[in-house]
Each structure stands twice: as C-alpha cells, then as structure tokens.
Amino acid sequence: MTKWNEALADIAAGARRIAPLIVAVIPIGMVYGAVAATKGLSPLETVLMSALVFAGGSQFVALDIWTHPASWVSLGFAALLVNVRHVLMSASLGTKLQAFSGPQKVFSMLFLADEIWAMSEFRARETVLKPLWYLGLVLPFYSAWVLSGLAGSLLGAFIGDPALIGLDFAFPAVFIVLVTGFWKGSETGLVLLASATCALTVHHFVPGVWYIAAGALGGLVVAALIGGESEEVPA
C-alpha cells in the first residue's frame, strides 16, 4: 500500500468512526439554525457563527441571551464559561498526541468538540492516535455542523418551535451516548451524580450559566478523590 493509500485509509477510518455521531449532530445543527433565525440572524451570520465558534453549547447559550444590539462582552463571557470544559478535554487529549507535530497539535485543539474528543480518547485506548485519522473525524463533523446550521436557518420558518417535535432532545441525547461509552461502573456513577447535583443546585440559586462550571468542578473534584483512593494500595 502506498503512502497515499495509507493516508486515505486513515482518513476514511476516522470518518467511519464519527459517522454515527454526525447523524446525531445534524438535527442539533438544524435546531441551532432555526433558533438563530428566530433571533433575527441571517443565514450568512448563522453559518459564520458555526464556522468560527464551532461550539454547539456556546452557540445555544449565546442565542439564549441574544439581544439587539448584542452585548458582545456578555456573549463572549458566556461562551467562555460554557467552553471552559475544553481546558480539561484538551489537557487529557494533549497527552495522547505524540504522533502530532506542533502545528498539528494546534490544529487539533482548534477543532476540538465533545464528540471529536470522545472518539479520539476511545481511539487512543486502541492504538496510536494519528493526525490523518483525526482529520477524518474533523472534516465530516465540522462540515455537517456548519451545513446543518445553514439548513436550519433556511428552513426555520417551516420547522417552527423545535421543542414541539422533540428536536430539542437531540443535544442531550448525544451526550448520553458519549457518557455511556466512558462508563466504568459505580465510580462513573458517583462522578455523574456529583456533577449533576452541583449543576442543579447552582442553576436553582444562581442566575446565568454558572451551573455549567459548577457541574464540571463538582465532577472533577469527586473524580480526583476517587482516583486518589484507588491509588492507595495497602502494603
């Protein structure tokens, strides 16, 4: 097999791995586009947000607090708060990019998404994570997100309220699938319980999107405590 064929095989393998999640993310992108249309964003503005921000959670939060004129400080801070989890995700994935050059590592982090991170972590458990395989994840997933947002924007008037036809559940459904892939028994359950408890508590008492950071912090603390206990081996 030539190097060109090997490269195509790596890209195709990555694309096959991400394909089921692409099917799941398309309705989410369409919901985003439909909501953006109701907020007065043009199809071009909708596409540019998807292409430049490329962060579903942040985009939905930004639309939720969107005003005319838009408060760029509030929007930027909300997006930063929602995406603070990417610091932990990139720190985890960064230890598995030995086959990546410096520029390739930067590229990989620019296009990091929850689904791409999860598939990369699964792959790293099986074999060495290669740049072209990662590219196979990014290209179709990124394209699907941008194009589905455009479709949702153009069809927004026909879709109406996404909640009425159940499309609003597509977003949490994807995360449920990702979580089940990382399930390790009761320890994972405790981390999820701590994260959910912290998030729900803060959401009830504190306005804004602080509950996202609280949930991440609560889960992280419990995961660290459980990890520390598991490392203590009796002499």
Automatic annotation (TrEMBL):
<comment type="similarity">
    <text>Belongs to the AzlC family.</text>
</comment>
<keyword id="KW-1003">Cell membrane</keyword>
<keyword id="KW-0813">Transport</keyword>
<feature type="transmembrane region" description="Helical">
    <location>
        <begin position="132"/>
        <end position="159"/>
    </location>
</feature>
<keyword id="KW-0472">Membrane</keyword>
<dbReference type="InterPro" id="IPR011606">
    <property type="entry name" value="Brnchd-chn_aa_trnsp_permease"/>
</dbReference>
<dbReference type="Pfam" id="PF03591">
    <property type="entry name" value="AzlC"/>
</dbReference>
<dbReference type="GO" id="GO:0005886">
    <property type="term" value="C:plasma membrane"/>
</dbReference>
<protein>
    <submittedName>
        <fullName>Branched-chain amino acid ABC transporter permease</fullName>
    </submittedName>
</protein>
<feature type="transmembrane region" description="Helical">
    <location>
        <begin position="72"/>
        <end position="88"/>
    </location>
</feature>
<dbReference type="GO" id="GO:1903785">
    <property type="term" value="P:L-valine transmembrane transport"/>
</dbReference>
<feature type="transmembrane region" description="Helical">
    <location>
        <begin position="165"/>
        <end position="183"/>
    </location>
</feature>
<feature type="transmembrane region" description="Helical">
    <location>
        <begin position="18"/>
        <end position="35"/>
    </location>
</feature>
<keyword id="KW-1133">Transmembrane helix</keyword>
<keyword id="KW-0812">Transmembrane</keyword>
